[in-house]
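Worked example (supplementary).
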Amino acid sequence: MDVGIVSYGAYIPRFRIKPEEIGRIWGVDGKSMGKGLMINQKSVPGCDEDVVTIATEAARNMMARVPDVDPKDIGAVYVGSESHPYAVKPTASIVAEAIEATPDMTAVDMEFACKAGTAGMQACMGLVGAGMAKYGVAIGADTSQGAPGDALEYSASAGGAAYLIGSKNVIAKINKTLSFTTDTPDFWRREGQPYPLHGGRFTGEPAYFKHITSAAKKLLAEVGSKPQDYKYAVFHQPNGKFPTRVAGMLGFTPEQIETGLLTPNIGNTYSGSVPLGLAAVLDKAQAGDRIFVTSYGSGAGSDAFDITVTDAITGYKRENAPTVDKIIANPVYLDYGLYAKHKGKIIMSE
Amino acid sequence: MSSVAREWREIPGRYNLEGSKCGCCGKVYFPKRDFCPKCRRDSIGKVEKHKIDRNGEIFSFSVVHESPACNDFLKPYAVVFVKTKDDVLIAGQLVDADLDKIEIGMPVRAVLRKLDADGASGVIHYGFKFVPDV
Amino acid sequence: MRDVAIIGVGVTKFGELWDKSFRSLGLEAGIKAIEDAKLSGEEIDGVFIGNLSAGRFIDQQHIDALIADYSGMASHHIPATRVEAGGASGGVAFRQAVMAVASGLHNTVLVGGAEKMTDLDDASINHIMDSTADAEWEAGMGLTLASLYAIIARRLIHEGTATREEIASVAVNSHFHGELNPGAQFRKAVPIETVLRSGPVASPLGMFDCAPITDGAAAVVLCPLDEAKKYTDKYVKVSATAQASDTLALFQRPDITTFGATAAAAQKAYSLAGITAKDINVAEVHDDFSVAGILALQDLGLYKKGEAGKAFLNGDTRVGSGKVAVNTSGGLKARGYPIGAAGVAQIVEIAEQLRGTADKRQVKDAKYGLAQSVGGTGSAVTVSILEAV
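After joint prediction of all chains, the assembly is encoded as:
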């Protein structure tokens, strides 16, 4: 049985802030900070947007492209995020209700820092492959937190993408997936705390780079492929710099990662990061294109995927929902005051 | 804290614009009704669930500057009457729009947003709002 | 059915009455009306009171009992009934009382309206007002009552029925009369620029397009017309009182630029009184938002569609213009809007006009007067016609 992507949909809030505007508040040269991180601007949620609304809009865009799929055939909805609006009460059940997949299905929220979205894709593959579900929905979405003034504030953004995983009319077959996981505390947020903490430079070599390269090399070896076999590659993109460097380390070219590298324009959407990058690739991909994907979640682990776009992409109704390019177009720029309002950082009276 | 159940039972309308259609005269209602005011007794048992089109155009609008406390974090915000593509008039907020450029006739579509929440620890209420359909 | 007369009227000062409680306001208006009717009080055999939301404004439900008790009616076990119909609470209470006397079930009835609003903060007050619209599908979606009227105003402007200036001039008219009314909350005439430049509330409406938050009470005493002379020479006849309903939510109407309930109640009232709109000399209309004044004059048939705004702008609605004088009390906008009291206070004003006791704002030789009271966005409307005798 060929298991893979039957449909996908993306959503990114309309608002943006530039690093120089953030730097203005903290006495930092934001422009060069942005340059160093390769982030020109980041997305900011509307005052009334959160992971539920972002995941729902992405999932609705996903469903719009497969009008023949009955949402009642969805057997599972998994929402991966590290900014679920509730500590207890699933995002996934709200999203499932909003796409009318309820009630004969399972739903759960996932969290693994930035890779909970791809973890959901693997879980859905398992359900579909085992015949336990006709379709599974995996969503990665975040309204990421970064402490005011912290380096993360320049990158932590908002967005998400949804994937319908199934075995019929697969537009992108997932040939193989595997993971690499260790206990590496490079970034965390304790229960009840508003902002995550991180290990600074410790998030680099022993964390991001070690896990991505380990998973990616293992996948290449097991599949017996080489970087040149892929038209596109998508790596987790906490900034623009890391994925560019890891691509080079693995032997991928800048051209291969360009299409799926969204961070320079929207920042780090955390759990939405790789799912959105893959969505941008699928917006352009043609039948036969091969895609290499590796996510990364702090704490720490990587999920790697080997994907081949199928002939079904030609009959697929991509035009029924906006492409990532279209969603990103026409942004509204915020100053730091409005940004603080949008992020709920202003204390209102009860 | 307001009633959890009161909001919960409106979820089909709030999330997915589920209204009603009279099995006798075919008239569409939003929000849902169990009884068609036109057909009255004849409609009993014949009113069906019916989803309203998410797309439409602005019929009239206002920008709210003085809001209920629960919406203070949104203000100023726009509210609209929207004539949907299936010719039903519904009320809601318009978000992600330039407040100076809202016009009667502007195409809009319904999306899911946070309506309000019962304070910092209570339930969050989600429902439809409109965005410019560009 | 018997004809009914108003034999006494009473109204408190309207405004922010920090030292007055709900019970003291209700009592003051009632006593004034009973004294005006030259009754001892023993004659009253029924009490009706219009009130929007004492339960939320002052945490007191069961105000029928409260009023009966504090007005001394409870010691005689006189029945008291509280009536709520959004902004039309006072208008509907009046109609209930008229029906009680007309039917013969009651003989001498006190009908009051009272609201104590300022004990609550502004946001909570507005929240209560918003819930007179559809709480689930209008207020619950973020639409305030002001924004619903603003949506009507925007349509009127868009369709060419009224201009922004004409809408603003409804408030100018009310303030012009408010200056002449010693009991009004705002006793100051304002130029149209003040209305147009007032701070935004719900565009295109600003602060001066909206009636204020007010404490106050009003009361009238009713008895059968043929017994009125027994008590007083200063009585007026209740020629008609009619009421009509419409959808709770404004967006469910086929046309939002007209209040069908006003038109229906007006037609019924004219027919009951055996007159037409042309016979009306003075009218109190429910201008909780300026734009409602335009709708009222059109839906009451006093002006054709597109003409009401011009009448306000030209000053034809003012006392002394020779045309039907509108909101000589100052209306809800300048006299004040203690919600449950408003509909009864309108009746007080019309009665004063018809018996010639309206002082500086007296309309000469007024024969017929009309009062229109509106709940929500026209979901409940009463139209009452009084006649000088």
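Two points are worth noting when inspecting this output. The CA atoms of residues 229 and 290 of chain A lie 7 Å apart. The radius of gyration of chain A is 19 Å.
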